[in-house]
User: Fold these one by one.
Assistant:
Number 1:
Amino acid sequence: MSLLLDYVKKQLAAEVAHPKFKAGDTITVHYKIKEGDKERIQQFSGVVIQRKNEPATASFTVRKISNGVGVERIFPVSSPFIDKIELNKQGIVRRAKIYYLRTRTGKAARIREKIQKSTKVAK
């Protein structure tokens, strides 16, 4: 039983390194790809359409439009191949899983952006 607990603790520690994001946010995932004996980092930018938060098997799905075709990719949160995750924009959505984006194209597929309030005081 302690092996399982150690594994779960290690997975949860890996999740802490990533920024907090949810469905509707636009993120860039830097993913390591091995090709033969070489390794490179590929970026995948898109909108998070879902997040599954089971403790050891948490994952998220990112959707983007590439050459007019929708592309979705599922990433495990605790994957050792994820180099880093950048949070580009925070979106305002009213659902936890925004599958309705799959049927929308163009302006209908836009997500409202959450505006960050600045704490700087003008002099």
Note: The chain has one helix and seven strands.
Number 2:
Amino acid sequence: MTDPIADYLTRVRNAIMAKHKVVEIPASNLKKEMTKILFDKGYILSYKFEEDDKQGIIKIALKYHPISKVSAIKSLKRISKPGLRKYSDVDNLPRVLNGMGIAILSTSRGLMTEKEARNENVGGEVICYVY
């Protein structure tokens, strides 16, 4: 697998389109941090990290509106790819849907949203947009 982050986003996107309640994803430290951010910002219902003989599994419970069954996540978009990395300094951090969505950044202080990076006054690699 050449791009595990794109695989993570694609698995979540496909599960949402198929209206699944839970999606299982092979674990890594970066994926665990991305999952924590999605949970903290209210895009997923819950998550659980399970250990197995290999690398572990992340189980994510997806969040839907109770009446209309619309997902909390409308779009997941990979920005920085292995072939073309996208970096942003603190002055040019992206705003997703004029602040309604989030951009996940990999900074020198770990994974964080663009709002947290603005508050910490750091830039970094723009991993993805979520709204």
Note: The chain has a mean pLDDT of 96.
Number 3:
Amino acid sequence: MPSNRIPRVGIGGPVGSGKTMLIEQIVPILSAKGYKAGIISNDVVSKEDAERMRRNLATERGLMPEDLVIGVATGGCPHTAVREDPSINLSVVEELESKHNYLDLILIESGGDNITTTFSPALADYFIYIIDVTGGDKYPRKRGLGIESCDLLVINKIDIAPYVGADLKIMERDAKIVRNSKPTVFVNSKTGQGVDTVISHIIADVLFAAPPKALVKS
């Protein structure tokens, strides 16, 4: 990896699965550990999610400069902008690398309305796919490229599983079968339950347990 290339994590999943809230849980924990992250948020027309994260993480909490949260209006299916033709995202990544080479990580969020989202390897080094229990415990069995191919599957909203008739043990069993035992993490991204495990995977599998750049320079 070139010395100026910042590791990139793609975070995909259906609309409403909790991608934005997961990022809002991840960034403060990384920040507390000394890691600095930039965020790119893809949507069809609006930049609502980016504006929310900028407000919550930058403006109100001061965890990062506001210009480190960038919204991308793809004008079409976000899947295309992170998979078939990621050029618009790559240009934003290059801008972040040029202006903020001290970053340890870039998080790239992209939504969709199905389970086929994947990220081009030219764009993301690591792929987190998030679903939630409201689709029922059959969700992992539905497979789909996102569920099958992601490096880390995150199953969100575990707190409401009893109310929607979703059995977490069944979801865990089926995820192991469908994903050939690649890791799956159960979280409640509203309270932060399970997010530490997601962070552990990012630090170990993406950053290779390297200390934050700021600590190395100091």
Note: The first helix runs from residue 19 to 32.
